[in-house]
Design goal:
CATH architecture of the largest domain: 3-Layer(aba) Sandwich
Low-confidence stretches: 6-10, 19-25
Number of helices: 13
Strand order of the largest sheet: 7-6-8-9-10-12-13
Largest sheet: 7 strands, mixed
CATH topology of the largest domain: Rossmann fold
Order of helices and strands: HEHEHEHEHEHEHEHEHEHEHEEHHE
Shape: elongated
CATH class of the largest domain: Alpha Beta
Structural class: alpha/beta
Number of strands: 13
Strand content: 15-25%
Helix content: 40-55%
Oligomer: single chain
C-alpha cells in the first residue's frame, strides 16, 4: 500500500470511529424501574411530573428512555416487584417514598435507588446522612417528623376547642413510627391528648373513624403515606360523614372534602427527582449525591367543609393559606 493511500485510510477510520461511538451512545436506552404502592390513576400527576423533569433533560420515552412501571395493590407485593426490576437490570429504581425504598433496598445494594418524597431517610437508616448518603440510595425528603408535628399544630389552631385528637397511621409505612414520636412530642407541648388508630388499608378507615368518635376526639390527623395518596378522597368523605375535622399531608383529600392539608409539593419533588436520575445515568454515585429537602409547602383550607362542620376557621389561618376552597 502506498503511503498516501495509507494516510487516507487512517484518516477515514479516525473520522468513522467517533461517528460510530456517537451512534452507539445515541442508541442506548436508559431503563428506569418505577416501584409504587397504589394505582396509576392515583399517582398520575406525580408520574407526569417525573416525565416532565426527564424531558427537560432530553430523555424521551420510546427514543432514549424506557420506564418499567410496577404498581403494587398491597405492600406485600412490593418485594416481589423490586426483585423483578433488579432481575431486569434496570439502570435506576425510582422508589418515591419509604414504603417503596425499603423493599428496593432489600432487593439490591448495587442498583441505584432514587426517592422523591421520603419522610425520614436518616431516621429509618436508608441513608447515613443528608449531605453524604453513602450506599446506593439518595433523593429528596419532606422530613415527615417535622411536618407531622407542624400539621398537628395547625390543626389545633383551626380547632382550638379540641382537647383530644386522633392520629391515623399505617403500620406498613416505615416512616410512621418516628413521625408518631414527633407528633406525641408536639401533642404534649400543645396540651392535647392523642388517640392513635392504625389503618393498613382503605377498608380500615370506617372502623378507625368510628373508634375516634367513640373516644370523643375533636379532630384527627392522617399521617402521609401511599395509602392516603390512593384512598385519601374516601377518607375525606368518611370524615365528613362522622363530622370530624381532618388534617392531611396531601391537598387532594381536601379538594374531596377534607378540612385542611399542610404538605410538601409532591409534584415538584417528583420533577426534581429527574435530576438525580440524570446524574446517576451519567455516572454519578448515589453515595455522593446529597439528599435535598422539599422547598415548597402548601396550606390548603376547605371553608365549605368547615361550614358543614359548624367550624369557624381563624381569619389569620385563612390568610396564611395558599389555597382556600369555598
Amino acid at each position: 500500500m502506498r503511503r498516501r493511500d495509507f494516510i487516507t485510510l487512517l484518516g477515514g477510520a479516525a473520522l468513522a470511529w467517533p461517528l460510530a461511538a456517537r451512534a452507539q451512545q445515541a442508541a442506548k436506552v436508559a431503563r428506569i424501574g418505577y416501584l409504587r404502592h397504589g394505582t396509576a390513576a392515583a399517582n398520575a400527576d406525580r408520574v407526569e411530573a417525573l416525565r416532565a423533569g426527564l424531558r427537560q433533560l432530553d430523555y424521551v420515552e420510546g427514543k432514549n428512555l424506557a420506564i418499567e412501571f410496577r404498581w403494587a395493590e398491597s405492600v406485600d407485593q412490593l418485594p416481589q416487584f423490586a426483585a423483578e426490576l433488579v432481575r431486569m437490570n434496570v439502570d435506576v429504581i425510582f422508589a418515591p417514598s419509604s414504603t417503596e425504598v425499603e423493599p428496593a433496598r432489600q432487593a439490591t445494594r448495587t442498583v441505584p435507588i432514587v426517592f422523591a418524597a421520603h419522610a425520614d431517610p436518616v431516621g429509618i437508616g436508608h441513608v447515613a446522612s443528608l449531605p453524604r448518603p453513602g450506599g446506593n440510595i439518595t433523593g429528596l425528603t419532606m422530613l415527615m417528623t417535622d411536618l407531622a408535628a407542624k400539621e398537628l399544630e395547625i390543626l389545633k389552631e383551626a380547632v382550638p376547642q379540641a382537647t383530644r385528637i386522633g392520629v391515623l397511621w399505617n403500620p406498613t409505612t416505615p416512616s410512621h413510627p418516628p413521625a408518631i414520636a414527633a407528633v406525641k412530642g408536639a401533642g404534649e407541648k400543645l396540651g392535647v391528648s392523642l388517640w392513635m388508630v392504625p389503618a393498613r388499608s382503605a377498608e380500615d378507615f370506617d372502623g378507625a373513624l368510628a373508634s375516634m368518635v367513640a373516644e370523643r376526639v375533636g379532630a384527627f390527623l392522617a399521617l402521609g403515606s401511599p395509602l392516603i395518596i390512593s384512598a385519601g378522597a374516601q377518607l375525606a368523605e368518611l370524615a365528613v360523614k362522622y363530622r370530624l375535622p381532618s388534617m392531611f399531608a396531601l391537598r387532594e383529600p381536601v379538594v374531596a372534602g377534607g378540612l385542611m392539608s399542610y404538605a410538601a409539593d409532591l409534584n415538584d419533588l417528583a420533577r426534581r427527582a429527574a435530576a438525580y436520575i440524570d446524574k446517576i445515568l451519567k455516572g454519578a454515585k448515589p453515595a455522593d449525591l446529597p439528599v435535598e429537602q422539599a422547598s415548597k409547602y402548601e396550606l390548603v383550607v376547605n371553608l365549605k367543609t368547615a361550614k358543614a362542620l359548624g367550624l369557624t376557621i381563624p381569619p389569620s389561618l385563612v390568610l396564611r393559606a395558599d389555597q382556600v376552597i369555598e
